[in-house]
Amino acid sequence: MYLQNFSYTQKTYLLFIYVYFLFSAIGLSQGKEKDSSNIAPMVYFGWSQRTTPKSLEPYYKELKTAEYGVQRFSIIDQLLEYHIRKTNTDSVVHYANLYLKEVNNWSQTEKIKKKILFKSQLLFRERKPNEWAI
């Protein structure tokens, strides 16, 4: 046979090499399992470039030129509804805060302000479970 030409020492070395490679292959295939019970899971956040939908451009232009009061509230409300549907939480919070600031600076009676403030406060509180929550 093939191994008959080798001496006893050479056969021992060959056996050692075969066994070494066998255990190395087994060790590499199983890998090392880490105890992850005390390690917090890693959270990765993605980033994408902000793009303004063309359908919202008229609202942004109107918001810049709209009269202070009901007209501005209507535009902000429409922008809020869009961002709520798209689940853009940052935008919803931004426009809800803008809505609150606009109402608080509005020169109307407290009775009228309370009606609109109630609506803006609802934006921060109640949403369906499948929508965003603050």
Overview of the structural elements:
By secondary structure, this protein is mostly helical. It has helices spanning 8-30, 57-65, 70-85, 89-104, 110-125. It has five helices and no strands. Helix 2 (57-65) packs antiparallel against helix 3 (70-85) and helix 3 runs antiparallel to helix 4. The protein is rod-shaped, with a radius of gyration of 34 Å. The model is unreliable at 126-130 (pLDDT under 50).
Give the DSSP E fraction (strand runs of 2 or more residues). Answer: under 5%
C-alpha Rg (nearest Å)? 34 Å
Number of DSSP helices? 5
Described by strand count, sense and barrel closure, the largest sheet is: none
Relative helix content: 55-70%
The low-confidence runs, each spanning 5 or more residues with pLDDT under 50, are 126-130
Count of individual beta strands: 0
Describe this structure in a few short sentences.
The chain is built from 5 helices and no strands. With 134 residues, the chain is an all-alpha fold.
Q: What labels would you give this structure?
A:
134 residues, 0% strand, 5 helices, mainly alpha
Q: What's the arrangement of secondary structure elements?
A:
Blueprint: H1 8-30, H2 57-65, H3 70-85, H4 89-104, H5 110-125
Helix pairs in contact: 2-3, 3-4, 4-5
